[in-house]
Amino acid sequence: MRQSIAHVTLVVRDYDEAIAFYVGRLGFELVEDTYRPEQDKRWVVIAPPGSTGTSLLLARASTDEQAARIGDATGGRVALFLQTDDFARDYRRFVDAGVEFVRAPAVHDYGTVAVFRDLYGTLWDLIEYRSG
Question: What is the pLDDT averaged over residues 26-46?
């Protein structure tokens, strides 16, 4: 048996502002953006450049309860981990793009990591794991 997680849902306020941040600032790829008229919603999938694994499904909040969870799905914990093959390159690119880092880069036994906040407040690790 072989299984994998295809998508992780990230609830957003607006499709286009989310695309502008993730694609425009973070450099993610827009994998799909298809309107689903039967549900009056869009199927918006993004992924980090070069990714062949799990992608993010951007889901516009459609109820007040969903909207209340935008940016706080994990109660203030880091929610997502963006692995990179070059921490310094991506950290500098994100800083130059105006991405807000809430924890400065730190070197640990497992690798180099810094925590940033997306446009809704969701916390992410930018991490380059130490090889070996």
Answer: 97
